[in-house]
Structures are given as structure tokens and as C-alpha cells.
C-mannosyltransferase DPY19L3 (Macrostomum lignano), 377 residues
Amino acid sequence: MGKFSKAKRQRSLSGGASSALEAPGGPPSGDLSAAGDSEGGLPGWLGCLATVLEWTAGIGLMLGCAWGFAWLTNEIHESTLYFSNIKEVEREISLRTEQGLYYSYYKQLVRAPSLRQGLFELVRDNSTEHPDTINVLSRMNIYQEVLLALLYRYTWFGTYLQPIYFYIYSVLFLNGLLICGLFATSWQLTGTPLAGCLAAVMYTLNSMHTTRLSSTHALREHFSLPFLWLQLFCLSVYFSRASVRGSARERVSLLGAQICCFLFTLFWQFNQFVLLLQSLSVLTASAIGFVQFRKAFAFLLTVAGSLLLVSLLQFGNPMLLTAPALSVCLSGALSVAVSRRWLLPGFGSAGRLARLSRVACQAWVCLLAFAVCQTVL
């Protein structure tokens, strides 16, 4: 009997040891809540759910703010001109000053026998500055009218909307994208969609001071500024610390910034002044160490490439080739490359005097390259 109880005691001890080996340091088998808390499953699910809800609510707020701004602007325009109750010729007359000129090119492309014939007439236009023959695509920024005419002719919009309504609704849609860009930029910089909602609401409530959209639809700025705000959003993502080298976040944000910068440059004749300020800001930030050299170099090449490509599309427009923004971008990119290679290695570990001397050298290289670019261009 004593031997039997001793053997039973040994088996129970060996079983306990084996169970301890199977789950070392684990909680008792009956305490499931403790097991879940130790593995972090429930808080992880809650965090994922909170992130999904935040993104869903943020995107919903962004789209709602964009729709609200477009709707409010359209209502102001309608109540001011009774736009839907007047004749088509009166709607066209309501496009005052240069708006009527821009819309006439769009209407000419829509009513041309073919889009190719309409473009040929714009390239050899003898009615705008009669008796001289000019290239309208080179003289003015009307590629947005070309794109809208292309969409109107070859999509189903042409069967449901009159040309002027399609034109105005397209402008309203683009300015809805402006609100989306403003919302997303504020969200990115603050980390909360409430900041984006506040920025969009304040922009809408102060629309009489922030935009002329309710009374002037065909101005170049209404086609261009939406892409400026989208570019700022892409740049805020690109220059953030979360965009590490070679990551998909960095590549996608840079690509978005390049596309938006090109469209912003293409649609507005005053693009060079905004791009000049952006280039000087990024160049200064890179010189004092706030922006990485490789990111500043990529941005400056993006701006320079946009200016050169738009100049090519406008048949060598000299206003863009001789713009100070292009010279600053080319000289700045050269100075950043030289500084990164020879002048500023180990910038972060250098002393204050060494930093100032190296920044002065970079500024000297930039000014020298700027003078050369201005002389050549």
C-alpha cells in the first residue's frame, strides 16, 4: 500500500512538471482572461478598430466638407445670377472679363468637327489678336479647356449636360478637391481629423475672402490651386520622419507631389512665384539641417522638371524658361549636391562655427550657379 501511494505521488509530480514545461510561466489553465491580457489580443483588436473608425470618420468628414463647400458655392452663384433660369447666351455673357475668352476656346473645341481640327485652329488663331496669327496654346494657359473639351466630347457627360454646365461643375469638383487637400494637410500635420474639419469649415465660412469662385468660375487659379493644396499634402507626407528612405510611403508621396506640381504649373501663369517661394524655403531648410539633402534635391528637381515640361508643352514659352524659379531650382539642386558630397559631410556632428561656414559656402555655390543660370537662360 505504501509503495502504491509513493508511485502515485511520483506520477503526479512528473505530470505537473510536464505541464509546467509545456506552458512555462503561463497562467492557470482556467484563467482565460489573464491569458488574453498577457498576449495583448483584446487591446490590439481595440486599437485596430479605433484606427479604422478614425480613418472612416475622417474620410467621411473630408468628403462631406468638400461637398458642402461646392454646394454652398453653387448656391451663392445661382442666387446671385439666377443661372438656371436664364438663356444659354446670357449664361455665357455672365462670364465677364477674361473668363469669356477662356470659355470661348473651350466652346470652340467642343463645337469643332474634330478635336484635332479644334487644336489646329488654336495653334493658328487669327481672331484673338487680329490681324496677327498667334499660338493660343503657347500664349495662354488653356490646357484645362482642352482636357475638359476632351472629356465632354468622348464621355457620357456630353449627352446629359450642356457645355457650360459641364464646365462649371468641373470647376466646382476641382475646388472640392482643394478642400480635400486642405483637410488632408491639416490632418497630416496635427494627427487628428478634427483639425482638418476645422480648417475646411473656416475656409468655407470665410469664402468671401479666400476664393472668388462664387462669381468667377473660369479664372486660372480655380483650376490650379486645388493641385497646390494636394501638392502640399504630398510634401508634408514626403518630408515627415515617417517617410524613410526607399519606403512605399516616400515613393508614393513623391510621385503625388510631382504630378500635382506639374498640373499646378500647367494650369496657372503665376505658378512660378509660388514655386519660387517653395524652392527657397526648402533650400533654406536643407541648408540649416531641417530637411535631408536627398529630399531637398528631389524636390528641386521636381519643380525644375515641371517648369521645363510645361514650357515644352507651351511650345517653348520664354516666360517659364527665364523665370527666377527655374534658375533657383537648378542652382539650388547643384548647391545641394555639392554640399552633400564635399561641403557638408557630418553636418550634424559639426560645431556651430563649422556649420555656419559650410552653410555660407553652400549659399555662395547657390548664388554662383544662379548667376550662371540667369545668364544662360
